[in-house]
Write a structure and sequence with these properties.
By secondary structure, the protein is mainly alpha-helical. It is built from eleven helices and three strands. The longest helix has 25 residues.
Length: about 230
């Protein structure tokens, strides 16, 4: 199948309304970096790529604008929203606090099964890190932090972090794709967080979880040259 037919097949196989499927597909493309900050969204091109008419594309773009992932410029059209220094600082300041809280709670509440899963995901992250497999690292990074949030056993905390998921994932992907150069510090931070949780060291788990996100914030701002 060609790209258009692949996408068309993907759309047919889902039972959600077409406009919702198109919205989710475009949102994922923005979050994953396939559509980059500042890139113009051409309705005809996107419609051809996804094998749909321009109407669901137009509806999806409007919805993405409401989520802050797209900006509409008068007489110019729709563009993927740029990432500002303020946005990075706002989101990652919140995430640093949430991750610190989650790590502390998870250290006290995580089940044996969750701890075993955490060790497995860390091992997979280490393997993908050494291989330079960015996609694998992204998947493992998301899973590792999700296990910690689940292990915290606080549904309100999970709800708050889920509301920031798209923005966090967008920053995470940029961080790993743009900054990763076999930086051992990145691997060490994950090891220290997991080791602290598994050993029951609440204070260290909180400290390392917070530092990990603050370091990510500094590296992102430096990399994006604000």
């Amino acid at each position: 199948m060609n790209e258009k037919n692949d996408s068309h097949y993907f759309l047919i196989e889902n039972y959600k309304p077409l406009r919702e499927i198109v919205f989710e597909k475009l949102r994922d493309m923005i979050v994953n970096g396939d559509l980059r900050p500042g890139e113009r969204l051409m309705e005809i091109k996107l419609a051809e790529m996804l094998g749909v008419s321009r109407t669901p594309i137009r509806e999806a773009i409007r919805k993405l604008e409401l989520e802050g992932l797209v900006v509409m410029l008068p007489r110019k059209g729709a563009y993927v929203a740029d990432i500002s220094k303020k946005e990075i600082m706002d989101v990652l300041e919140i995430r640093a606090a949430l991750d610190k809280l989650a790590a502390g709670l998870a250290t006290q509440r995580m089940t044996k099964t969750e701890k075993e899963e955490l060790k497995k995901v860390l091992a997979s992250f280490e393997k993908n890190f050494k291989l330079g497999n960015i996609e694998g690292m992204i998947t493992d990074d998301i899973r590792l932090h999700d296990i910690i949030y689940i292990g915290a056993k606080n549904e309100k905390l999970q709800h708050i972090i889920n509301n920031l998921r798209e923005q966090i994932t967008r920053f995470r992907i940029i961080y790993l794709k743009e900054i990763y150069r076999k930086n051992e510090k990145l691997l060490d931070e994950h090891r220290e967080i997991v080791d602290a949780i598994l050993s029951g060291d609440i204070e260290k788990a909180q400290k390392m979880a917070e530092e990990h996100i603050k370091n990510q914030e500094m590296e992102l701002i430096k990399s994006l040259k604000f």
